[in-house]
Design goal:
Layout (H helix, E strand, L loop, with lengths): L1 E3 L4 H27 L3 H26 L7 E6 L4 E5 L4 E4 L1 E7 L5 E7 L5 E7 L6 H20 L1
Antiparallel strand pairs: 1-2, 2-3, 3-4, 5-6, 6-7
Helix pairs in contact: 1-2
């Protein structure tokens, strides 16, 4: 089974509505505490603002817009593997310990596994990245079946 992924612009808007005000207010508070001579707290808030800015940028550019080379553009499952293809043209095969982690809302899932070199790989996929809800559900069932098959074998 192969699923080609698409950019999730609606999810991007929601992520921007979450991250931009958070970074803005953390930076604003850091500036306020800097000038009030509470520099230790200012450093902490500046660090948090930087962290959320980087995390938000990575989430928007990689998983929502798929704009960077390391962004997954397709997921393919076979009899005993899961292949993730990247925008750069490279791909990685998850061959061992393939696990799917769903969220409570059912709007995204994480996929982990070991590649051919034994390195652990981790990916996050959002429901809106798939062409249809049926494709999203079918891929999750395939991945669960792959995990169950590996347990038996």
């Amino acid at each position: 089974m192969r699923c080609n992924l698409v950019a999730d612009k609606k999810g991007m808007v929601w992520d921007l509505l979450l991250y931009i005000p958070t970074v803005f207010f953390l930076a604003l508070l850091a500036t306020k505490f800097w000038y009030e001579d509470t520099k230790n707290l200012a450093y902490l808030l500046a660090f948090l603002a930087s962290f959320f800015a980087l995390a938000g940028s990575n989430r928007v550019l990689k998983t929502r817009l798929m704009a960077v080379g390391s962004a997954p553009v397709f997921v393919e499952t076979g009899k005993d593997f899961a292949r993730i293809g990247f925008k750069s043209g490279l791909s990685v095969d998850l061959l061992k310990e393939v696990k799917r982690y769903g969220d409570y809302a059912g709007k995204s899932f994480g996929l982990t596994g070991l590649d051919g070199t034994g390195r652990k790989q981790q990916f996050v996929f959002h429901k809106a990245q798939f062409g249809s809800v049926e494709e999203y559900s079918a891929l999750q069932k395939e991945l669960d079946g792959l995990r169950d098959q590996k347990k038996k074998g």
